[in-house]
Amino acid sequence: MLPGKLLWTVDNGTLRLVLRVYFITMTTLLGLIGSECCKCAAKVDLLSGNNVKLNRMTGWLRPIDIWTCVYKLRRLPGGVLLGFVMITTTLLSLTADLAVSKLVLPTVGPSDCIFTTGLVMNWINNETFASPPPNSYPALIASNVQIYSAYSNCSVGIYNKVPINGDPLFCAKEKDILGGWNCQDQNADQQFDPSVSESDIEQTLLSASLQYSNMSFNNYYKGDESHTTHLVIWSSSIESNDLGSPFDVLVSIDLEADITDTKTMKTFKCTALSNTEEGQTAINGILSQTESVTALADWVLGLEGVLYEGYGSKASTYAESRLEQYLNTMTMVQGGGNSVLSVPTDNFIYGCIKAKAEISLAIVVLIIFTAFLLVVTFLYWIILLLIIFKHAISRKTKRKLGLKNISPVPDSIIGWMLQAAREHAQGSDFTAEGAPKTEEDLRDWDFKIVDRTQGVARMLRARGDDMTTPLLVHETPKR
């Protein structure tokens, strides 16, 4: 995960939908509450006996109308505070949508999966086979899951259980690992002339304490009896197949690629270790059941594919880590009894990777800022309502002469249409008969040309004072 990023355990498409719904909801609420703030702020000034500039009575405007108001009136709609909130909300709506599209990305990350059956380590019961089979399905999945885990930047080692399908999404956590083999270069490379035989090489390594006496070896490419390449020799610290004790392994590998090259044999000492006492006990229990001499003799055939990359190649630069993984595999096959049908007695969870969403901290900042802006706007609305309520209570209880609460205050297109119709109908006498009192009354009004020569139009009632017309229905008078 990159700095400034957060991982959410949710599909990125779902998270984008949730965030878009959040921002749409919040900006809609900002518009509704902001519109009420515009109306209440105008009322407060009017009740205080002050004139109100018309730019403060626009209500909540669309983005294009905000810029029109600023351009033509040279003032912010709704006043400075609410105008700032309008502009901020407009920019926020656009920015949030673009940010969600760009900064919410699909990724994968560590998670937990349910374990049903598979290769489960058991270091209590003795196994019946002479050595763990190197060509079995359990060996295949035990090897594969280490590769999958390493590819996902997760831990590699001897796992306490491996799912039956060798899950490609396997991603071991600390709780999944008993320990692992650790191979250390002995820094005692031995060089041999290409003509030196394998048996002479073995004796030299044995004399230098770089091999134990029960050596198993394999070479893969021979020129003649005394010219070989890709020679690998290893041996167990247990001199025979006696059970009851853990063992370490000495591994000597030919670093060169060609049979004519001076042969350089590098030796590693490999030991199975754990970071916990419980894990070390488990590993020692598994190794104590293993007939190590036979096991190494069976598994030596696979070392060429582990340590080299085909004909004509030198020893891999990853030989050390690959050797550790190979020994881990052998140990897991032994510990799991070469069976993938086992069920754990507890802990039915293993580490894996799942689809997640990577979200930038910029999105989090937008989420918090949007919520903050809504809270501030809501509190401002509450304060305005309390001022209006206080004015009404004061006028009623103290019987003071004062302004009656103004209703309605035009704060939208329909509000201003109502105001225009009322002024046209009766001038300043809005209580007179024929003057529209509510916005619903506007359905009986039209906008009509009254002077075609001068191009003058105004609002007129469509019907007489004693007649009403259904909503959105207008009949043409008969001639």
Automatic annotation (TrEMBL):
Keyword Transmembrane in record: yes
Swiss-Prot/TrEMBL keywords: Membrane, Transmembrane, Transmembrane helix
Transmembrane segments: 15-33, 80-100, 361-389
Protein name as it appears in the record: Uncharacterized protein
